[in-house]
Design goal:
Oligomer: single chain
CATH architecture of the largest domain: 3-Layer(aba) Sandwich
Shape: globular
Radius of gyration: 20 Å
CATH superfamily of the largest domain: Periplasmic binding protein-like II
């Protein structure tokens, strides 16, 4: 597929013909575009259905889709799900599109309007507040900033609405930045998840989803930026075989792909292509890498503040690794 010559924009359009081997559900936000833009064109691999995060699990449970790009908290809540690809939506520092806006100082927040389209971000906001000794009354409402703040001290607003929200005169907290400042860790916003008992060619789906991200052109530019100022500790080790010159050439050759992703993102979101490019380049990351520690810390803080039911922990694979390694003398 030639991404430098886009033929037709199919974002938000569900194809009626059943051509693709897999069907996936995805959030309809700019931050997901590098993960699914490859599937805009009719193809033999993946068909994409778009829904807000809170409605995606039902698509998976009904069997309408094989996997969903959904809020990371879903993996922590349920023991019947598993990651089906090593890509998702992560950040390390400001994410710009997930915000807590308040009319009063953070420590004075008594009531909080939660975005009904969100799952993970609502819990994250409550963790940030709880860690600061703030425990507001929370209501889940439609994501309308004006209405939310008319009846509450503060609100959580996410996605494209969050990016465009007007924080003038308000306490404006970027929840991605607040998390990393508090923990020193990346935050995992969304993951590709599927059912453990679902019969499908999981390896082919996993490879399809991973290659779709690589085809977006953002893999090369993120790798180049992270070599200059590494965000994740494993980036240099994983890309050490690539010289800076090799990466520069790859970044240059991928420009048409990134341009296509940003132009289609702008067409359906109200963002400009320039805003999308700046955001997708500097505020989000997609390879899972060292984000597992951030996800584990998120789980511990949910349990600490009793913010939801968490499924039992998976087996301790680190302990298994030590035991198996110990079977051979070193």
């Amino acid at each position: 597929m030639d991404f430098s010559v886009p033929r037709i924009h199919l974002w938000y359009v569900r194809r009626t013909e059943d051509m693709a081997q897999f069907r996936v559900g995805c959030v309809p936000y700019v931050n997901a575009r590098p993960l699914v833009a490859a599937f805009d064109q009719p193809n033999d691999f993946v068909e994409v259905i778009y829904e807000v995060p809170s409605k995606l699990p039902a698509l998976l449970d009904s069997g309408e889709v094989d996997a969903i790009l959904v809020s990371s908290i879903e993996l922590l809540r349920r023991n019947d799900l598993l990651m089906v690809a090593d890509v998702g939506i992560m950040s390390y520092g400001p994410v710009k599109s997930v915000r807590l806006l308040s009319k009063v100082p953070l420590t004075e927040i008594k009531s909080l309007a939660l975005d009904q389209s969100s799952m993970t971000s609502n819990i994250l906001a409550q963790i940030i507040l709880a860690e600061n000794g703030v425990f507001p009354i929370c209501d889940t409402v439609p994501p309308d900033q004006s209405n939310m703040l008319d009846s509450h001290d503060a609100c959580v607003i996410i996605g494209d609405n969050g990016f465009k929200a007007d924080g003038t005169g308000l306490v404006d907290i970027d929840l991605g930045e607040a998390w990393t400042d508090m923990t020193g860790l990346p935050f995992v916003w969304a993951l590709w998840l599927g059912k453990k008992d679902h019969r499908l060619d999981a390896q082919k789906l996993s490879v399809s989803l991973y290659l779709a991200f690589e085809a977006s052109g953002f893999n090369s530019i993120h790798s180049s930026l992270d070599l200059e100022r590494p965000i994740l500790s494993r980036v240099k080790r994983l890309r050490k075989e690539l010289t800076h010159e090799t990466l520069r050439k790859e970044v240059k050759s991928d420009e048409p792909r990134r341009k296509y992703v940003c132009e289609t993102a702008a067409k359906n979101s109200g963002w400009t292509p320039e805003e999308a490019m700046e955001y997708l380049t500097n505020n989000v990351r997609y390879k899972f890498l060292d984000s597992r520690k951030g996800l584990g810390t998120f789980k511990k803080l949910i349990e600490k503040h009793s913010l939801g039911k968490i499924c039992p922990a998976e087996p301790n694979y680190l302990e298994m690794r030590k035991e198996i390694y110990g079977l051979i003398p070193s």
